[in-house]
């Protein structure tokens, strides 16, 4: 089990390999957005890593962040992250105040599209 700490929310035990986007909703009970359903097509599931940022990134995440010109120290897409180690994140994209009707479609258990791991 990995320990997920969400700033301002608390600490949670997360099954190894669970997608961060799902852990933020299921275990932490947050209103984290994921408008595209976890397919790395939008950037609504952004988080900022405070500690424990993964060394690798999926090719899809890297491409999406570059195409949308999203930058910032530790800013990543929670739909493309596996909880396989302890991490601390700050929520960036939440339903509250977004004007959206819901968080988005339920992301699959596995990272989509199938991950091709590359260096950051």
TrEMBL record:
<dbReference type="InterPro" id="IPR036010">
    <property type="entry name" value="2Fe-2S_ferredoxin-like_sf"/>
</dbReference>
<dbReference type="InterPro" id="IPR012675">
    <property type="entry name" value="Beta-grasp_dom_sf"/>
</dbReference>
<dbReference type="Pfam" id="PF00111">
    <property type="entry name" value="Fer2"/>
</dbReference>
<feature type="domain" description="2Fe-2S ferredoxin-type">
    <location>
        <begin position="1"/>
        <end position="95"/>
    </location>
</feature>
<keyword id="KW-0285">Flavoprotein</keyword>
<protein>
    <submittedName>
        <fullName>2Fe-2S ferredoxin-5</fullName>
    </submittedName>
</protein>
<feature type="region of interest" description="Disordered">
    <location>
        <begin position="96"/>
        <end position="120"/>
    </location>
</feature>
<dbReference type="InterPro" id="IPR001041">
    <property type="entry name" value="2Fe-2S_ferredoxin-type"/>
</dbReference>
<dbReference type="GO" id="GO:0051536">
    <property type="term" value="F:iron-sulfur cluster binding"/>
</dbReference>
<keyword id="KW-0274">FAD</keyword>
């Amino acid at each position: 089990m990995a320990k997920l700490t969400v700033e301002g929310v608390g600490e949670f035990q997360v099954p190894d390999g669970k997608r961060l986007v799902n852990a933020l909703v299921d275990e932490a009970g947050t209103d984290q957005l994921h408008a595209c359903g976890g397919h790395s097509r939008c950037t609504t599931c952004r988080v900022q890593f405070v500690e424990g940022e993964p060394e690798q990134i999926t090719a899809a995440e890297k491409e999406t962040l570059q195409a949308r010109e999203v930058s910032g120290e530790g800013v990543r897409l929670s739909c493309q992250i596996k909880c396989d180690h302890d991490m601390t994140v700050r929520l960036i994209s939440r339903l509250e105040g977004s004007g959206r009707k819901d968080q988005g479609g339920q992301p699959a258990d596995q990272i989509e599209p199938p991950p091709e791991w590359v260096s950051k």
